[in-house]
Specification:
Number of helices: 7
Order of helices and strands: EEEHEHHEHEEEEEHEHEHEE
CATH superfamily: Ribonuclease Z/Hydroxyacylglutathione hydrolase-like
Oligomer: single chain
Largest sheet: 7 strands, mixed
Distance between the termini: 5 Å
CATH class: Alpha Beta
Helix content: 10-25%
Length: about 250
């Protein structure tokens, strides 16, 4: 199984619109971060996790030629704004694309993208088949287990795909979800910044603490803002916890 990090940045991206505060980013391309998204390839089956505002650019950079299924973590725009660009895959593949998420996310997608569904569907718009899930499903050769977590007070999903657990925009992880993560080979988890504490996101020290608690052999941090420098941060982290960066590829 191969994981490509399509984006590893916060909801505003790094640098933010207008290039403000760009001077705080060292001359290291790993510090420029698109909105969080990931691509899983296993046995010829292609899974997209989230489709944010830069999905078109991400798909070109990673040369994604097929998408068999989409997993959405939650309904915030930095995770769904690129759904419109999936229509290119509809045209090429000649079919609708299955999409999985929790019920509140599904309700939001129907509302925000009403022109894609039902009698009001606009000709040529993206075709996705939304299925709310609350238990494990089989996608191609993979087993996908939803991982309920909290983004502040908002219930969202991470996903365990075989031996990979992927969590973004996390603040709290219930004990029942920690049990589902246990035994993973790789954990991907958000770590917004070193400090101060944030009401809806884990800081880097908090994410490291969770990684230590879960005992996963290797952890990669995502959803970092522009105050987080890649090289200097990695030097501060334990050997089994590292920052991911856009277009980084790992194999399990």
């Amino acid at each position: 199984m191969k994981l490509t990090f399509l984006g590893t940045g916060t909801s505003m991206g790094v640098p933010i619109a207008g290039g403000f505060y760009r001077e705080k980013i060292a001359a290291d391309s790993r510090n420029e971060r698109y909105r969080c998204s990931a691509w899983i390839e296993v046995g010829g089956y292609s899974i997209l996790i989230d489709a944010g505002p830069e999905f078109r650019l991400q798909s070109i950079r990673a040369a994604i030629t097929k998408i068999d299924s989409v997993l959405i973590t939650h309904e915030h725009m930095d995770h769904i704004a690129g759904l419109d660009d999936l229509r290119a895959y509809n045209y090429k593949q000649g079919s609708s694309i299955p999409l999985y998420c929790n019920q509140s996310c599904a309700d939001s997608l129907y509302k925000r993208f009403d022109y894609m569904f039902g009698e009001a569907k606009y000709p040529g718009s993206t075709s996705i088949d939304i299925t709310p899930i609350d238990d494990k499903i089989e996608l191609g050769p993979t087993t996908v287990i939803p991982l309920p977590v909290y983004h502040g007070s908002l219930p969202i999903y991470g996903y365990r795909i075989n031996n990979l657990s992927y969590l973004t925009d996390v603040k709290d992880i219930p004990d029942s979800t920690k049990e589902l993560i246990t035994g993973s080979e790789v954990l991907v988890i958000s770590g917004l910044r070193w400090e101060p504490e944030h009401p809806t996101h884990l800081t880097i020290p908090q994410a490291v603490e969770i990684a230590e608690e879960l005992g996963v052999p290797m952890t990669y941090l995502i959803h970092m803002n522009g105050t987080v420098d890649h090289e200097s941060t990695n030097k501060r982290l334990p050997n089994h916890v590292k920052l991911a960066f856009d277009q980084m590829v790992i194999e399990l």
